[in-house]
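Bumping with the actual sequence this time:
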Amino acid sequence: MTAAGVEPNIRILDADAKTAGAAAAQLGCEVGAIANSLVFDCDGEPLLVMASGAHRVDTDLLARTLGATKIRKADPQLVRTATGQVIGGVAPTGHSSRLRTVVDETLAQYPVIWTAAGTADSVMSMKYEQLLLLTEGKAMSVR
């Protein structure tokens, strides 16, 4: 990450921060500034979606936009295999191989966004542009 110009500011949250709302309350930010790392099964391949915690991902819209037949929530085994991390702690980077990534364009409205940092209780801050750079993600509407 430092090679990409991102100096991670990592914070450890309380164990009860299992939702974007709980994390936002602990960090003192809007829930929309929490970038949830969601792994989906996109026609048999993993797809990482960095989505604002303020709303849910519309998988039908995402499938149409990406030209996919079907996008569905990945099972825990696919998440672990694709990322090397557990659900609830998937970081936007640091996976065993680069994942196709979509970044929710609504995250751009926040001066600082928070993502998981590889464990269920850790988060790190960055700017939207840094998230795009780190993930080589495609900015698009996901709802």
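The tokens above came from a reply further down the thread. Strands lie at 9-12, 34-42, 45-52, 71-73, 100-104, 113-116, 122-126, 138-140.
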